[in-house]
Structure formats: structure tokens, C-alpha cells
Write a structure and sequence with these properties.
Elements lengths: L5 H49 L4 H11 L4
InterPro entries: TatA/B/E (IPR003369), TatA/E (IPR006312)
Protein name: Sec-independent protein translocase protein TatA
Subcellular location: Cell membrane
């Protein structure tokens, strides 16, 4: 049989736990989870920024931006 059976997976899991310990595996899981979360957040931010850049600009929108950017003395 070329695939892994449940016994192979269990033996592998036991060896990994014995080698690294549960504390290191727990920290590794937190680190990987945080990295995935940051990656997803950056992808969402880039998508939102790209969508904002692709929006058509109207004259009203441009006029409101120029009136807000003028400095009053």
C-alpha cells in the first residue's frame, strides 16, 4: 500500500510530540496562525486599496476634494 495508514500517522505524531514537546508545538501553532492572519489582512487591505484606485472619479468628487484641500487663513 503506497498511502499512509492511521497507524503511520499516529506513530509520526507521537515521535514529533516526544521530540519537540507540547509547549514548542503550541508556540509553533500560534506563530503559524498569526502569520496566516497577517497574510489574510494584507491581502484584504491590498484588495480594498486596488478597488479604491479603480473607482471612476466624477467631477463632484474631484470638486469636493479640491475644496477640502484649500487652506483657509
Amino acid at each position: 500500500m503506497a498511502g499512509l495508514s492511521i497507524w503511520h500517522v499516529l506513530i509520526f505524531a507521537i515521535v514529533v510530540i516526544l521530540l519537540f514537546g507540547t509547549a514548542k508545538l503550541k508556540n509553533l501553532g500560534k506563530d503559524v496562525g498569526g502569520a496566516v492572519k497577517d497574510f489574510k489582512k494584507s491581502i484584504r487591505d491590498e484588495d480594498a486599496e486596488a478597488a479604491q484606485l479603480n473607482e471612476p472619479r466624477t467631477l463632484e468628487h474631484q470638486n469636493s476634494n479640491t475644496s477640502n484641500s484649500t487652506v483657509k487663513h
